[in-house]
């Protein structure tokens, strides 16, 4: 049973998260031939202040771009 855990910055809509879950599931089915019913996906939303890129939080990067 393939298990996929993905961390994303909060703010995506329910529709976007559903599309991501579907795409990750389909990619797993195609890549390793796993039965679709066996694929599990966990999405964990992380606040922008707690998610960093290149030494800065995503919140700080967004503030710099305003």
Q: Would you give an account of this structure?
A:
By secondary structure, the protein is α+β, with helices and mostly antiparallel strands. 41% of the residues lie in helices and 27% in strands. It has two helices and four strands. The protein has helices at 14-32, 58-65, and strands at residues 3-9, 40-46, 52-53, 56-57. The strands form two sheets. It has a two-stranded parallel ribbon. β3 (52-53) and β4 (56-57) form a beta hairpin. The radius of gyration is 15 Å and the shape is elongated. The model has no long low-confidence stretch (mean pLDDT 96).
Q: Sheet with the most strands?
A: 2 strands, parallel
Helix share, percent: 40-55%
Structural class: alpha+beta
Radius of gyration: 15 Å
Mean pLDDT: 96
What is the distance, rounded to the nearest whole angstrom, between the alpha carbons of the first and last residues?
44 Å
The amount of beta strand, in percent, is: 25-35%
How many distinct beta strands?
A: 4
The largest beta-sheet arranges its strands as 1-2
Sketch the topology as an H/E string, one letter per element. Answer: EHEEEH
Overall, the morphology is elongated
Low-confidence stretches: none
Oligomeric form: single chain
Number of helices: 2
């Amino acid at each position: 049973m393939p298990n996929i855990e993905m961390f994303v910055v909060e703010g995506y809509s329910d529709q976007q998260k559903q599309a991501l879950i579907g795409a990750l599931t389909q990619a797993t089915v195609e890549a390793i031939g796993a039965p679709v019913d066996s694929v599990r996906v966990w999405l964990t939303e992380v606040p922008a202040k707690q998610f960093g890129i290149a030494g800065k939080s995503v919140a700080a990067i967004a503030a710099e771009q305003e």
